[in-house]
Amino acid sequence: MDATPVGISVIVATYNRAALLNECLDHLRRQHFEPGDELIVVDNGSTDDTFAVIRRHQCLSAVPLRHLEEATPGKSRALSRAIAVASGDLLAFTDDDVTVETDWLDAIRTAMADRDVALVGGPVEPRWECGAPAWLPSHQDGYGRLAAPLALLDYGPRAADLGVRTVLGANLAVRREVVARVGGFAPHLGKLRGTLLSGEDHDFCRRVQAAGFRAAYCPEARVRHWVPANRVRPRYVLGWFFWSGITNAALDEHDAPLTRSISGLPLYLIRRFTIGLIAAPAAALTSRTALALNYAADVAFTAGYAAKCWGLVKLQRAVPAQAARAAGGAA
Length: 331
Prior knowledge:
The chain has 331 residues and is α/β, with parallel strands linked by helices. The protein contains ten helices and 13 strands.
């Protein structure tokens, strides 16, 4: 890696979340900034008071706060818009419904002082609107699979290389030169209006690691994610797993099959689907809600995977080279 980074560009994409964005920027304003740091907020077509919130914080910010607009819907496209103009050697990403801890930026800067580290991410804790659902494991037990729709993450109290794990886009920092090498966030993945599409952060982390770069978990870089009441309802959870199946099918399109399949569906998914159809109702009838949701998630995930494989859902094709150029570097 090149010399120790000089500046950090903190990037937030937003869409119609003026009140939450205001909280997000309030917490970012409390960071310990250094010369060369900047904030970039990309408005992805908001029609609420987002413009006024950004203007207010431009007057309050201790570092330049750049307001960009991206008319094409999609979180990945909004992030690419910011990456293309960011001046920092490090790019730190968080979301408009996230509040960062006071020492978040310092923790990122410290972790990235190790020149061998290309990417870091940290814990994402919940800010509940109505309290934790009964079906979610307690934090002490670690966030299980059912926390994925809530965008929560905690790999424990110790710093470590990620290995096969990935981190969330709500709390992720990467060297600009690495983005230029591997490309930015895939435009066919990530939040898109009318869907629960995701996976742009998972795909990005995977490409960084596949390129031979080191990715690390930094427990000191903590953020808190707003979890509204509607997201803890089973209907939302199962909808998220359906779209997760679509996301994973899109990711698998570019990889050689590692398992046997029937009509494009891996056999292990067919087994999980069959078991889930039987076991989910049985668990629900005995009031084992968490177990029932886990089985039902297998059914929803496989249904989404099949929908993508069989052409029932169309996504834009990935163009990694263009994403890399958007980041300001050569692919």
